[in-house]
Amino acid sequence: MRRVVIFAACAAALFGSAHAQSSAVAPHPADLIKQPGFKESWTLAMKGEKFERRDSWVPALSGPGSGDFWIDPAGKQWLEGNSCQPHNCGDNHLVILADPVTRKIVAMQRTRGETPASQRFFGKPDANLRKLLLARLMATFH
Question: Exposed, middle or buried by CB within 10 Å (0-12, 13-18, 19+), for 124?
Answer without folding.
Answer: exposed
